Amino acid sequence: MTDLATTVTVIDACGRARVPTLLSSDPGVGKSSLVRGIAASEGVTCETVLGSLREPADVGGIPVVTAEGVVLDPRPTPSGWLLLGRATCSWTS
Fold first, then answer.
1. pTM of the full structure
2. pLDDT tens for each residue of 49-62
3. Contacts of 93 (CB under 8 A, 6+ apart)
């Protein structure tokens, strides 16, 4: 088991390097609060997307027909942290 300070340091370093990070533990442990706290300490936004409540277009974009075919038109995203919660409950492709 890693202490909290080390965990925060690693998550922060991954975020700055734009490396996706998976936090896995029992519900209610504080994963979401930890990520929101790191974002708040950096003064950036933290967008939360709950997989159990979203459609694929909410994350990947809306399908748009173009001359080249159908492409996904992504929604604009602010810089900051993206928290994907309940990802195992999300859609299947």
1. 0.65
2. 777 776 766 666 77
3. 56
